[in-house]
């Protein structure tokens, strides 16, 4: 007598998944201060790390370089420009316009690791003795805009 033991296996399923947290940051490789003493234009290098399309919100505290201790002197305006070529990201605004704040986005381009630069160009030379200051706030964050293919 021949007997056969045939076994049948149950179907198995395997779920595979993964996730990566959204990350967007900007690092000023040359420090975070721009000294315009005796010059009309200065460039500051930066690095951006972002794993999805990004946006930036940029604002100025004074709308220009304000002469300290002299409230009646108007702020010296400057042109602010930011360029991150790999992300096709260019932002240009006057310091006066930055007082209200401006938002810029990378139009769906994901920069991953990219280098760029900020350029500050004074509209007129600093003339009066004293310290001039302004603070530019730059917030970088993942964009809500669609990613380009």
Structural account:
By secondary structure, the protein is mainly beta. A hairpin with a 4-residue loop joins strand 5 and strand 6. The N and C termini lie far apart (67 Å). The chain is built from one helix and ten strands.
Distinctive features:
mainly beta, three-stranded antiparallel β-sheet, 149 residues, 1 helix
Radius of gyration: 26 Å
Task: Give the beta-strand count.
Answer: 10
Percentage beta strand: 35-45%
Given the C-alpha coordinates, what overall shape results?
A: rod-shaped
**Mean pLDDT across all residues, rounded?**
87
- Order of H and E elements: EEEEEEHEEEE
Helix content: under 10%
Number of helices: 1
Q: Strands of the largest sheet, in order across it?
A: 1-2-8-5-6
Poorly predicted ranges (pLDDT <50, ≥5 residues)? Answer: none
Find the structural class using helix and strand composition.
mainly beta
Straight-line distance between termini: 67 Å
Main beta-sheet strand count, sense and barrel state: 5 strands, antiparallel
List the helices and strands and how they pair.
Elements: E1 24-27, E2 41-50, E3 54-60, E4 66-67, E5 78-84, E6 89-94, H1 95-98, E7 102-105, E8 112-122, E9 132-133, E10 136-142
Antiparallel strand pairs: 1-2, 2-8, 3-7, 3-10, 4-9, 5-6, 5-8
């Amino acid at each position: 007598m021949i007997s056969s033991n045939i076994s049948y296996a149950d179907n198995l399923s395997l779920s595979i998944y993964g996730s990566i947290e959204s990350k967007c940051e900007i690092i000023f490789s040359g420090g975070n201060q721009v000294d315009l003493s005796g010059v009309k234009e200065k460039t500051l290098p930066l690095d951006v790390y972002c794993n999805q399309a990004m946006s930036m919100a940029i604002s100025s505290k004074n709308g220009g370089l304000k002469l300290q201790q002299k409230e009646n002197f108007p702020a010296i305006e400057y042109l602010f420009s930011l360029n991150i070529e790999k992300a096709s990201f260019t932002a240009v605004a006057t310091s006066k316009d930055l007082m209200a704040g401006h938002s810029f986005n990378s139009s769906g381009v994901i920069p991953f690791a990219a280098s760029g630069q900020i350029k500050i160009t004074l509209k007129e030379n600093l003339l009066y003795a004293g310290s001039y200051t302004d603070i530019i706030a730059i917030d970088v964050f993942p964009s809500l805009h669609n990613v380009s293919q």
